[in-house]
Every structure is written in C-alpha cells, then in structure tokens.
Amino acid sequence: MKILVCISNVPDTTTKINFTPDNKSFVTTGVQYIINPYDEIALTRSLELTEKDGGTVTVINVGDATTEPTIRKALAIGATDAVRVNAAPRDAYFVAKQIADYAKDKGFDLILTGRESIDYNGAQVGSMVAEMLDLPAISSVKMLTINGSAATIEREIEGGKEIVECALPLVASASEGMAEPRIPNMRGIMSARTKPLVVVDASSVEQLTSVVGYDKPKPRSTVNLIPSDNVEKLVELLHTEAKVI
Amino acid sequence: MSVLVYTENSAGKFKKSTYEVVSYGNEIASKLGVDLKVISIGNVSNDELASLGKYGAKKVLNVADDKFSKFNGQAFASAIAEAAKTEGANVVVIANSFSGKGLAPRVAIKLTAGFVDGAIALPDMSSGFVVRKGAYSGKAFADVNITSDVKVISLNPNSYKVIETPQTAEVVAFTPNVKDSDFRITVKEIVKASDKISLPEAELVVSAGRGLKGPENWGMIEELANLLGAATACSKPVSDSHWRPHSEHVGQTGIAVSPNLYLAIGISGAIQHLAGVSSSKTIVVINKDPEAPFFKAADYGIVGDAFEVVPKLIEAVKKFKAANA
Ligand SMILES: Cc1cc2nc3c(=O)[nH]c(=O)nc-3n(C[C@H](O)[C@H](O)[C@H](O)COP(=O)(O)OP(=O)(O)OC[C@H]3O[C@@H](n4cnc5c(N)ncnc54)[C@H](O)[C@@H]3O)c2cc1C
Ligand SMILES: Nc1ncnc2c1ncn2[C@@H]1O[C@H](COP(=O)(O)O)[C@@H](O)[C@H]1O
C-alpha cells in the first residue's frame, strides 16, 4: 500500500499569538513549530497500516525551507520518505493544488490529511485535493481500517457517528481517535537524517482569496466572582445580565 | 445573479443551523439586490421545504432522488455546484457542519470559487468581499477577501441569528447530472444518541473536567444540563480516560463550540481547552482553586467544590424555572 500524508507546519499549541503592528502577518519570532497534531495522528495511523500490511508512507509539505525540521520529525516518527513543495502556503487552494499536482500520477492508495490545521483551521485541503483528483473524501475520520482494496471508516457527525465503506483510492482527514501519536525514538531520529527529502518546485495557481488582516478577540472584563453560598445570584445574573437563560 | 444556500437536513427535518444559513444568505442576497435560492438534498417533505420561504427563500430546488438519501460529499457537491451554475449563483452558502466540511471545499473547486470556511459574520462588501473567520484555534480572527467572481462561504453554527422575512417559496424538483463515480462511498450505519442536543450547535453547554474525579459523578452534570436544555461536553483527559465519549471533547483537538453559555466545572482552563471554547458568548467557571487559569477567561465564576456547588446550582435552576414557567 502506498500512502501519502499531508503535513502542515504549525505553531505549537501553547504559542501566544502575535501579529505585526499592521495586523497583516503572524509574528514567527520565538515560535516553536510542530507537525499539526491531526497530521501526526494521520501519520501514525499510516505507519500502523503499513507495518501490518506492508507499503510506504510518504509525507508531503508545502512550505519554504524553514519547515524542514518538522518534515525531519515526520521521518523520525517513521515515514519512508518526504517531499517538500518549495513555496509559502498562500491559502488552502494553493496548497491543495500543489499536493494534487504531485500526487496525480503516483498511484497512492490512500491520501491522508489532518481534520484541520491548528493555525488556519480551514478543514479545506483534504476535500480540495480529493476534488482535484476526482477521488472520494471522508472528513473528520475517527477510525480507519483497510480490508484488502477497501476501507471501513468511521466519521464524526453531529451527535454521533457514521460508518462508511469505500474502495481505495480515497482521501481521509484524520481526527482525534484514529491513532495515538507516536514519539520518535533514537533510531528513528538517527535514520531520519538519511531518509530522502525531495524538494520540488511549486506550480503556479491563480489567487482566489487573500487575508487582509488579523485581529485578536477582545479580552474579557475581569471575572465576576460569586460567593459559593449564593448560587441563586449566578442564576439571576445569567438571566438578567448575560441573558443566556 | 443569485445567492444559493444549501439547506442540510437531519432525517428530513431542517435544523436551527439550516435556518441560520438561510437567514445569512438572505441578508447577503438583499444587500446584493438578488434573489435567494436554496437547494435541499434528500427526503424532505413539501411543507418543510416551503417553510424555507419564511426566512427569505424565493425558490427551493429539491433533489429527492433515492441515490441522495444518505450523505455523500462528492455527489452532493456535484449537485450543489450544478445548481449554482443553473441558477447563476455568485455566492454559495453552506453550514459549517461535519457534512458541510466535506462539501464546501469541493463546491468551491468545482466553481473555481474562493472559499472561506467557518465564517462568523456577514461579509463586509464595502471594499471587496471580506469575510471574518476564526484562526489560530480561537486565539485570533482572520479577515479574508474573496477575489473570485463566485464565492463560497461556510457559516459556523450559532454565529448568525435566525431572521424571519416571509416570502412564498416556489418548490421545484431538481435532477442533477451526477456521474456514477460520484457514488463510491456506501454508508453502512448511522449511530446517533438521538435524545441528545448536538454539541456543535448547542446554545448552552455544561462541561466538566478532571475535577469531577470519575465517570460515576456525571449524574449531576447531566441533570444540570437537562434542566437547562444544554448539551454536555468535557475536557480532553476526561474523554481520553473514557469517562465520557470522545464526541464530547471540546478544545483545540476536539470540537470547537461558541454557545451563548459555556459552563465549565472542574476544568483548569489550559490553553488547548480554551482554544475550543473562548468564542463562547458567556463563560461561567466553577473551580475549587481560585488560581485556576480558567477564571481569567471567564465572565462569572464561583470558587468552590463542585460537589457542593453543582447540587445547589441545580436547586437554584429548578427554582428559577418554577418562577419563570
Ligand atoms: C497538543 C495538545 C492538545 C490538547 N488539546 C486539548 C483539547 O482539545 N481539549 C482539552 O480540554 N485539553 C486539551 N489538551 C490538554 C490540556 O493541556 C489540559 O491538560 C486539559 O485541558 C486539562 O483538563 P482538565 O482541566 O479537565 O484537568 P486538570 O488540568 O487536571 O484540571 C482539573 C481542575 O479541576 C479543579 N478541581 C479539582 N477538584 C475539584 C472540585 N472538587 N471542585 C471543583 N473543581 C475541582 C482543579 O482545581 C483543576 O483546575 C491538549 C494538550 C496538548 C498537549
Ligand atoms: N502547507 C501544507 N502542506 C501540506 N499539507 C497541508 C498544508 N496545509 C494544510 N495541509 C493539510 O491539510 C489539512 C487541513 O488543513 P487546513 O485546510 O489548513 O485546515 C492539514 O491537517 C494538513 O494535513
């Protein structure tokens, strides 16, 4: 089985977010970057599948050279090889087009993405890649098993889950539950240095969206503390002041 | 020209989030001076379809073919994109639901349309077509300009109010030209806790964390939630320990919610938890530790032991309900 895992390079989950004074770009100084947590889940599941049935796991990232530590980490966790499309990821459409262009003639059985990136939170790339390659896609996947040439997949829906079957090839977007992320071991870290990381040029893509600016939520005013022996007061305030009940 | 809204149904019924997207689409249509059209897919009664007129829909395209009885992202996207073309839609609006996430990006590609997912407000059309969405997992907003002719937006649940602007909706059958290869997915089973309020769409959420000590103590959480008509949620360690199902886990790696009320009990307020709940309109925290970080992100707080405060709160809510019945 040939699996492609799309990995995004994102700020660590504990990062304090800051923007440049003109609010146009994210300040990267001092920010620790990681593999997007959902992509790590997708990667781990891919390794579990290929360890069982044989096959290869290629990771792909669309990014400039600064993302290479993140790509090497994916190799250390266990990916077979890696591809970096050399371009700053402008938007999901741009990223999806690069991935689709790379994947179209490679015969992947399975293309996995994360449910969403924790920086752009788009949940777009997976379905877009699928559409560009005319493949079925299943988003928010909590369980994925392969039986021969088909997959059984559990996807999240409002208040429950849906179980679907689909012949390979397909695109699935990993959510929590698909696998427990792995930590690279020493051997993995050593071997990652020599695993192939191919850099390819980006294709040109028309621009359909652009971020005009960022903003931060207004901080909440200080908390109104209510004595624990007067919970009636809380109920009253929720009714008269917050007007939520 | 028109605005096209996809009206998702759940077992033949439209949900509140459906009326939200229709109201949202209607506001855009009236700003652009064009008609609001909607497309419904699946088995929905004529009365239910006609009810969309109440929120401004002029025309309802009804895809009732049996092939479409279960969700299939590829086929549904083909139908919506085809409707958008036949109706000359310049804006397509879809709810940012679990299914919507599998649909909207595909529709955008089919229409070579710029797409903003998870919009939280109306587009600003004063210069361009700028849509606000959450970014950096609840820590920021991004304002995204869609520069293509056709635009696709997915709207977050609970972000736009339902507005009635009565119209008479004309319901017409619509048979899209989908190809067989669009139907490669077979839905085997749908498992739903049907009596439960769905978390992403809930207006009120009662959530509890590790402070509750064990799954046996969730009785009072459920009782409080039932009384309020709230959905229940939990922190990640709680679902990781299988005290509660994963579908209740909120935060950066769980479901992101923005209810009117988020009541957090015995949750410390870690940054990854806040990422999924910080856009809630009102946040109430109950925690026995006055230094718990969650208090800094809360509107109201009670410092106290959940096992004493929650039963009292249940009584207070009962009294309030009796007095306001
Ligand atoms: C990559 C990553 C992603 C993550 N994603 C998420 C996520 O999506 N969602 C999430 O929730 N977490 C997430 N986490 C975990 C997060 O960092 C915290 O560990 C977690 O939120 C803590 O859960 P908690 O508040 O229930 O437990 P704790 O931090 O243990 O807090 C328990 C709280 O209960 C209080 N308490 C104890 N007893 C009582 C009592 N009797 N009455 C009242 N209060 C009491 C304590 O004072 C304490 O504040 C993530 C972590 C990482 C590294
Ligand atoms: N720059 C990128 N390079 C490779 N994959 C990406 C990139 N950005 C996003 N992805 C993939 O697409 C998924 C969804 O991202 P998004 O649409 O940005 O929320 C991520 O979880 C990744 O799997």
In short:
The complex is a heterodimer of chains A (245) and B (325). With 245 residues, chain A is α/β, with parallel strands linked by helices.
Describe the structure.
The complex is a heterodimer of chains A (245) and B (325). Chain A has 245 residues and is an alpha/beta fold. In chain A, 26% of the residues lie in helices and 31% in strands. The radius of gyration of chain A is 21 Å and the shape is globular. The termini of chain A are far apart. Chain B is α/β, with parallel strands linked by helices and 325 residues long. Chain B contains eight helices and 17 strands. Chain B has helices at residues 16-32, 46-50, 73-86, 98-110, 219-228, 236-240, 271-277, 306-323; strands spanning 2-7, 9-10, 13-14, 35-41, 59-63, 89-95, 114-119, 130-135, 140-146, 151-155, 170-173, 185-192, 204-208, 231-234, 261-265, 282-287, 300-303. In chain B, the strands form four sheets. In chain B, strands 7-10-6-1-4-5-11 form a seven-stranded parallel sheet, with helices on both faces. Chain B has a five-stranded parallel sheet with strand order 14-13-15-16-17. In chain B, helix 5 links the parallel strand 13 (204-208) and strand 14 (231-234). In chain B, helix 3 packs across helix 4 (98-110). Chains A and B meet through helix 3, helix 4, strand 7, strand 8 and strand 9 of A and helix 3, helix 4, strand 7, strand 8 and strand 9 of B. Strand 12 of chain A pairs antiparallel with strand 9 (140-146) of chain B, so a sheet runs across the interface. The site of flavin-adenine dinucleotide (FAD) has 25 residues of chain B, from helix 6, helix 7 and helix 8. The site of adenosine monophosphate has 24 residues of chain A, from helix 1, strand 4, helix 3, strand 6 and helix 4.
